[in-house]
Write a structure and sequence with these properties.
mainly beta, Metal Binding Protein, Guanine Nucleotide Exchange Factor, Chain A, 2 domains, 1 helix, 24 strands, elongated
Length: 276
């Protein structure tokens, strides 16, 4: 019987998974290198779809010190389509879903509380998983990373399209374009990026929200106001996108989950995702 590879991926969610990377991985605190490794692994704890880095203890320029108090651990469970629930990134690093021990990383300059986790699995002997947010900066080779480790099995692809994309909010057309760039990202809905000239910008107001995507960079947001209906942070744009998203620079996309979108007259069903 044929196998849907997405089903295969989600079937492995209960397992502790890893994949070695050939890239040099560095992490900095206060401008100083704390992690420098060419032997890193990309790791997914059970029920995680967003990965972390694990490195040999010898590649950490600091001591692993057993934590004296447990960090607050709150799980945020979300559904992606009809498949099994997963933990989204709001479930912080302190939420561990495999047996192991958490450690502080103590350096001459700082103490990074709970920034390392050593799984009990013998495969990880000599390795520690690291908290991306505990460090000031990460680099793959010489390129700066944001948000989290990059998944080597994830793709982000773009295609220009002349199909007519119409976006409606509360029954009012807010965008109408035959000049979209469609962005396809593994396991996520297609995102329709539209030129600002094809969007009724007078119905949008910028907000202070900024988010970071490991693949696309930092996004700025807009809320839509239609009469008495306000949909907060419903649209976003990348002013300085990373290499995965240069094709959509300064274009606007709307959350399919919160607006009505049609493509060539065919209504796109609102997907069920963490942003619903």
């Amino acid at each position: 019987m044929a196998l849907d590879l997405a089903d295969d991926f989600f079937a492995s969610l209960p397992e502790l998974r890893f994949h070695p990377t050939a890239k040099r991985i560095r992490a900095f605190v206060g401008g100083e290198v704390v992690v420098d490794s060419t032997r890193a692994w990309i790791v997914w704890e059970p029920r995680r779809v967003v990965p972390s880095y694990a490195v040999p203890h010898d590649d950490i320029r600091g001591a692993l010190v057993a934590m004296t108090e447990d960090a607050a651990a709150v799980e945020h469970v979300v559904q992606i389509g009809e498949r099994r629930p997963v933990l989204d990134p709001r479930s912080g690093f302190s939420v561990h879903t495999t047996p192991g021990e958490a450690f502080d990383i103590s350096t001459d300059a700082a103490n990074l509380a709970g920034a390392a986790f050593v799984p009990s699995d013998p495969t990880f002997d000599g390795y520690a998983i690291l908290d991306f947010q505990a460090f000031d900066e990460w680099r793959e080779e010489d390129e700066v990373l944001v948000a989290h480790a990059r998944d080597p099995f994830k793709t982000v692809d773009t295609r220009r399209s002349s199909r007519r994309v119409v976006v409606e909010v509360a029954g009012v057309t807010i965008a109408d374009s035959t000049r979209s760039t469609m962005l396809f990202e593994t396991f996520l809905p297609t995102r329709y990026y539209l030129p600002r000239e094809d969007v009724r910008m007078e119905l949008l107001r910028p907000t202070e929200t900024i988010t970071a995507c490991a693949y696309k960079g930092h996004a700025s947001y807009w809320s839509a106001t239609i009469d008495d209906t306000v949909i907060h942070d419903v649209a976003w744009s990348y002013a300085q996108p990373h290499n995965y998203a240069t094709a959509v620079k300064d274009m606007l996309a709307f959350f399919n989950e919160r607006v009505d979108i049609s493509v060539d007259g065919e209504h796109i069903e609102r997907p069920h995702t963490p942003w619903s």
